[in-house]
Amino acid sequence: MKNILLIPTLFSICISAYANNTYIVNQVGAGNTAIGDQSDPTISNNLISQTQIGDNNTAEAEQINSNANGVIIHSQQGNLNNTLSTQDNSTNGTVNATQVGDNNEVVTSQINDNFNGNIISQFGILNSTNIINNTSSFNTSIVFQQGTDNFSSVVQNSGGANNSITVTQNGIQNSASVASFNSAANTSIAIQQTGNFNSVGASQTDSSQFMSSTIIQTGDDNLGNIFSGGSTSGSVTMIQSGNANLSSPVHTDSTLSQGISNQIGNDNIVGALIQDATTNGFINITQMGNQNTGSFVQVNSVNDSAMLVQLGASNEATGFHFFSNDSDVNLHQIGDQNFISSFQTGSTNTVDAEQTGNQNTIDLDQDGDLLIADINQDGMLNTINSIQMGQDNDAFFSQNGNSNLLDSMQLNTSSIATVSQTGDNNSSTILQ
């Protein structure tokens, strides 16, 4: 039989209209339900504490109607348990939920709140956390999950400011989905995963200023995806350590935006770090290892810059600037059999590419006026292919080593090509 424990708030008013209410519930067994409701707007400093040991238990707690300094504590041990917490129109409220077991669920809702916090801890497999913050400011959500196949979802939206989300997952095949949108200012997302086959999807949009998203993944075969846009001074950071990981951050419609992606290991991919319609944007990609692929795209941008550095062999770096002006690209590779491809359209753009090692290749295509290409290779059997279309363009080529090849085309007028080759059996062809 299911036991139901419901304690009304009104009993405390008989003692004192200003007294603090306290509910403490302890249940041992299966199929139990505990419900606590503290909704009197005249009473603050309320406490609901629900402890359940067993399977298929449910704990519900509600503190609404302008309550202040309310605390909800859930503690469950067992499987197939769930908690539901609601703190609406409150200030300085806290939800603290801990679950130990499998197939458990935590749901919290905080709407029209200020200075509230969620602290969720789950240990086991197939557990889930769902947090909703709506029209709230100065709120903090912290989620920790240990185990396998766990899921976290945190949403902050509609007009709040100075909110933060932190998710930590340890184990394999865990996933996190975090979103913050329509915020006034100063929102931050931080997600850390340790293990293999984990995935993250984070989104920050339409904040007036100062958005930041950071994802750190340690392990193999992990996936990280960030979408950020519509802000001033936004930043996206993706750090992955391990093999066969995929990073796919996007940063769009922002001013003073910053995108950073760092990977350590082999067979990793930065799948197009994208900045669209940005001003004074910056991209920094660093990969250490072999057979890695890194790429970035900056579109309809002004005064943007990008740097891609790869250390290892058989790596591939690709950079695109479409319809962008006053943009700078720096591409650097150290190792053998590496490949660089750079494409720019627009005016007053610059490419600086450098390779150290053997059997490396650089392909460069620039279309516009007042462009600059500065290409350097140090090693043997290296190749440069360069095309510049437009007026008043400059190209500087330097190759040190033997059996190197240079092919350059400059189509239009008032362009300059400068070539320096040091070594034996080198070849250069310039077409103007």
Question: What does this molecule look like?
Answer:
The protein contains no helices and 37 strands. The strands form 2 sheets. It has a 19-stranded parallel beta sheet, with no helix packed on it. It has an 18-stranded parallel beta sheet, with no helix packed on it. The protein has strands at 4-7, 22-28, 33-38, 47-53, 58-63, 71-77, 82-88, 94-100, 105-111, 117-125, 128-134, 140-148, 151-157, 164-170, 175-181, 187-194, 199-205, 211-218, 223-229, 235-241, 246-252, 258-264, 269-276, 282-288, 293-299, 305-311, 316-322, 328-334, 339-345, 350-356, 361-367, 372-378, 383-389, 394-400, 405-411, 416-422, 427-431. Helix content is 0%, strand content 60%. With 432 residues, it is an all-beta fold. The chain has a domain at 1-147.
Key terms:
432 residues, single chain, elongated, mainly beta, 19-stranded parallel beta sheet, 18-stranded parallel beta sheet, disordered N terminus, 37 strands
